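Researcher: Re-running this chain for the archive, since the previous output was lost when a drive failed. Same request as before.
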Amino acid sequence: MALRPTRPSRFDVSVAVGGLLGGVLLWGLGLAVRPHTEPYVLLPGRWPVLLPLVVMAGCELLRRTAPRTALLIGTPAIVLDTVTQGNLVTILMYTDLMYAAVLYGPPASAHRIPRITGLLAVAGAVVPFALWRNPEALLIGVVTGLVAFGPASTGLIVRNHREAADAARLRAGQTALLAEMDRVQAVTAERARMARELHDMVANHLSAIAIHSTAALSLDDPGTSRDALAVIRENSVEGLAEMRRLIGILRDAGGDTEPAAAPTLDGLGALVDAARTNGLDVHLDASPGPVPAPVELAAYRIVQESLTNALKHAGPGRVAVRLARRDGSLAITVTSPYGDREGPGAPGSGAGLVGMRERAALLDGTFEAGPETSPRGRIWVVRAALPVVEGEPE
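Model: Regenerated structure tokens:
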């Protein structure tokens, strides 16, 4: 429920003024609820009628700002009105105070007031009838129900509908917020995936181009320059083809820009041959057997990025690539000499290691990379273990 205002609203002021003027009009016309000859009219005459009318009109100013206070003040006023000739507008304003106390009051009062007024209506019908044995005595309970229980029940119904509507709006807002969070997460995940694919598909070719172009510029040897330019051209063509395939995936176009099938472990031989063409001494030992497609793609990309890093940073010597099934996982190990390289290198940003670690994490696998000491000296080792669920579709 919304916070109650601290000052009467224009509507409340209008109700109070309108009720007061309407009551005064009925009083001026001499239209009373009861004739002065009734035995329970303890304050006969016209003037006593005005006091409960004025008090009730003042309570109407508090119907939203202090609904319980207005009801507590209005109840003695309506009791006072019953011992006078009475005014219909005073009774109507009291029913509005009862309705407002339930609708705008605290939750505890909103549920307590209808129960109390319901008991009073029943007691007002049963007790007088039991005492006087007169069917007309039942009218006391009926009047009590119309003046108190009816407005209180109506206020409770309206309040419940408003609370249900507020809860529905809150749930709708939360659902929209969750949907937006899911959308943002999906976009972020897709951007990260595309960044990994772009890096893995193109970085190898660009690294080779950078290294061989530096060699061609630094060595004054036509034969070496010619060989370097051949490697540069080959990597440029392959890199351009990879970029076109990636653009085809982004555009979802047909024809010549159809995205190529995801690389598999069967393509490791061609990947190693390309690395050898770029100047690496690579030894491949791969006998993983059939593995699920996501694991196969991640393993291929990890090997590809490891060879790219070796091309950019490794010292002279052999690069060993091993893939094997071990303890329900596909174990990947890539080792390369660690130290200053003889020829030109290429700068690195660290994005490759991040991408490999992300690929392993997405499959609940493990990844580590760093220098180690081996019998043949310092080496850089990349290790990854990608779980392979037995019986999973390949």
